[in-house]
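Feature request, filed as a ticket because there's no other form

It would be nice if the structure record came with a short human-readable summary line next to the tokens. Right now we just get the raw output. Example of a typical job, pasted below so the devs can see what we mean:
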Amino acid sequence: MRHLFFDLDRTLWHHERNHEVFFNQLHSEMGWGGGPAEWARTYLAINDRLWDHIQEHNLGVDYVRARRFPLLFREMGLEYPAAREAAALGARCESLLKERLPDLGMGYDGVGEAFQTLRQRGFRLHILTNGVELPQRRKIAALGLEPYVDVVMTSDVAGCYKPAPGIFAAALKAAGVSAPSSWMVGDSVLRDVLGGQGVGMRTAWFRAEDALPPDAVAQPDFEFGDWRAFPDLLESALRGH
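Raw output as currently delivered:
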């Protein structure tokens, strides 16, 4: 049982911190009122709601991209005399996000060390994430994890989102491994723990100090909040199986 599949956003790549960096830049360039932290928090809440919607209804990410900045402007009280002006600014901000955000490399403490240790111990490491392949690969590279990763499976390639069994099946097939020989590791109880368990994988739940509230109830093989401890916790779980 030496194959590990990792979620990316909010598991390895720190979603909130990287967005804070991006909005610090964007806020300064646009000269918006309010603080950049408020803009980032509001954006993240809107983005999460839209992503929940497309994952529930299996819609494409263009649905999110067309709506998140116009909704942000409205919620932050940024008004334009014509809707087309707001749409144009939204498209510009979306372009800047696409250009910059995936190359920001703030991860959770200890991720790089954990990946190095796991590879040294003979584990095969893969990424299994909801999202679009190219920007997700850029995030992996920005984190410095590319040399350790074998398979990257994203929802746009698989044609469905976690926790649907199809994306797990696609990842397992790409890695040439069976579900009982694999682990799913991620921050979402619904999408990672229950999704992985649903296809027969063992699971580990990453619960960071600043994590979102649990989105479901399940019993993973173990949970952890410190990446430096993960390799030894995994070995212990394997010995106890």
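Something like this underneath would help us a lot:
The chain has a mean pLDDT of 96.
The beta strands are 3-6, 124-129, 149-154, 182-186, 202-206, 222-224.
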